Each structure stands twice: as structure tokens, then as C-alpha cells.
Amino acid sequence: MTFLADPHVLTFADQCAGRIRLDRPKALHSLDLGMVRQMTQALLDWRSDDDVRIVMIDHAGGRGFCAGGDVVSIAKDTPKGGTLGRDFFFEEYRLNHLMYTYPKPGVVFMDGIVMGGGVGIACPCRYRVVTERTVFAMPETTIGLFPDVGGGRYLSRLRGRSAQYLALTSARLDGADCIALGLANFYLPSDALDAVKAEIAASPEKAESILAGAAVPPPPARIVERLPTIDHLFASDDFDVVLAALEADGGEWATDTLAALHKRSPTACKVSLRMLVESPRQLHFVDEMRMEYAIMARMHRAPDFAEGVRALLIDKTGDPRWSPPTAAEVTPAMVDAYFEPLPPAEAWTPLPAYR
């Protein structure tokens, strides 16, 4: 078993498995650029290694699988004219695309907090394992962004209007909810994971049957009873109409949801809804990544991103001052601008072998 030198992610061979283990517990294993590069290199090395027949992704300790990308560093670097944001998202999306098109099966153990960038490295895996400790969310609108890392492709394929609800509200799902929506396909007790990983590493061809044998019935999914209401109140692709529907409903859940949406970036919410319309029109995942990068290249430089990160993650005051401050002030032309293709010299491209 050989470990590659990196302080935040371990990549190593374990019998017939290539193992990726996130090891940045104080940041809930949030990805930084070095981690993205290490993971990418390991996957490229294993792609032609006949001894590696499956890839397993987990975390070393703590309560998070992966809470996203290191947005605080990006938010601090961007106003100084730095390129960390551009470089990070460019290479993160290359990793996402590599995983989506990877020729060997992947198993991810979503045992803890799975948000943002964590979703981007979990959803491409063939086998997605959740536990009683799973907390899954795409909370980007709280910091002036949109559900990226392939979120448009994954969310837009969920049943009914659950994608719009999850993207706008940043609602948190547990493991049972993930199974019910199809975001995960195996529910295991957390104390069974180590034994399962060892079995899969030894017999990767039996991965599906090993997981099925260790899986237990999940508890009732709380989101299921709410789905008809979500389909009704989030039926529109117009954010102003969604807000009006929630206000007109007047019930406790609708009122609480409306209050939550009023704390989200109005621009991010409108861009997120538009993205969920555009994503199904992208024929291939590479097209999805190209579109998302063009949006992100603009959004991470917009005022709402720095302000959202300040209010949520730096000062932790929970009082973001959005610009524009209301949904009514975010015009269709403002949203359209985020979806313009980038000039060829600035556009995202996949890794050379995948062009």
C-alpha cells in the first residue's frame, strides 16, 4: 500500500481497488486545488493500471464526507485580482468530467456532510452509499452561486420539481431522502462500512452484491410526503412566480420556505432556475461542464459571492446584502448574461485525452 505525499487527500492502492481518501477534517474535507489535482492524477494513473479494477472514495475522519470547495480562499483571492477561482473551477470541472466518463466503476461512501463539491465527486460514481449520518445539500444560493459541478445534470433528472426546490432552498436531505430521490442506491449502517470496503477491495467484481448484502432498509424518507406540495409550489421556472405561490399558500411550511428564500441571493436563484431549464438541453456531460464553467467564471467574480461567503462563512453574521437586493430587480437580461459562451481562449475544456 503506497501513499502519495499530500496533506489533505490520500490516494493509494488497496488490493484490487484504487482508494481516494479525503483527509481535511477541520474543513469538513472541503476540496482545495491541491486536492483536486491529486485526485485527478491518481485517476489518470489508475485508468491504464490493470491491477486497479475499481475506485473507492471516502473520508478519513470527522463528520463530513466533503462539504464543498474551499470558497473562502477563492472569495479572498478574487478581489485582489487573483486567479485562484478561475483555476480551481477549471480543474475541478475537469475532475468531475473525468469521473463521469471514467471507464472503471466507482464506489463513494457519503457518510456525513455531502455538499457542493462533495456532490460533484459523489454523483458520478456507479455505487453511491449513504448512512444514518448522511446530510446532502446543494447550498450554493446561500453564497451567491448556483448548483454546479454537474448539479444541473444530476438535479434536473430528479422526479417532479424536487430539483427546483433543492437548488433554490438549499434544503438538506438525509440518507433515506437520497435513496427515495435516486441520489444514492445503497443505505448501509455506518459501522458496517469498514468491512464492506475490505470486501470490495478484495473482490471488486462482487461490489454490487456485497453492497446489496450489507444494505438495510432505510427509515421512511421525510421528503416523500412533501413532494406533491413541492411540485405544486415550485411548478414555475420563474422565481417571482415561485415566491408568489409560496406567499399565496400561507401555510406554515410555505411561509417558512418563503422566509428561507428571501435570505438567498435573488440573482443566484434566478440563474439556478434557468440552469435547470438549460441543463437537459446539453447533449453530453462535457457540454454541461462548458456551460456551468461559463456561468461560474462570471458568478464567482460578482458581488454576491464575496458577500455571501462573508456573511455565511467568514463573519458568520447571516446578514448578506445582496446586489440587487430583491428578485424583482434581477432582470432577464442580467440572467442571460451569465449564460453567454466564453471567448474560446477562456472557455472550459476537458482533459486532453477526453477531447
What do these coordinates show?
The strands form 2 sheets. This protein has a 6-stranded mixed sheet, sandwiched between helices. It has a 4-stranded mixed sheet with strand order 4-6-8-9. Helix content is 45%, strand content 11%. A hairpin with a 2-residue loop joins strand 1 (9-14) and strand 2 (17-22). The protein starts with 8 loop residues before the first strand and ends in a 17-residue tail after the last helix. With 355 residues, the protein is α/β, with parallel strands linked by helices.
Keywords:
alpha/beta, 16 helices
Write the layout of secondary structure elements.
Elements: E1 9-14, E2 17-22, H1 33-47, E3 54-59, E4 64-66, H2 71-77, H3 84-100, E5 106-110, E6 113-115, H4 117-122, E7 127-130, E8 135-137, H5 151-156, H6 162-169, E9 173-174, H7 175-181, E10 186-187, H8 193-202, H9 207-214, H10 227-233, H11 239-249, H12 252-261, H13 266-278, H14 285-299, H15 303-314, H16 332-338
Parallel strand pairs: 2-3, 3-5, 4-6, 5-7, 6-8, 7-10
Antiparallel strand pairs: 1-2, 8-9
In short:
The chain is α/β, with parallel strands linked by helices. The protein is 45% helix and 11% strand. The radius of gyration is 20 Å and the shape is globular.
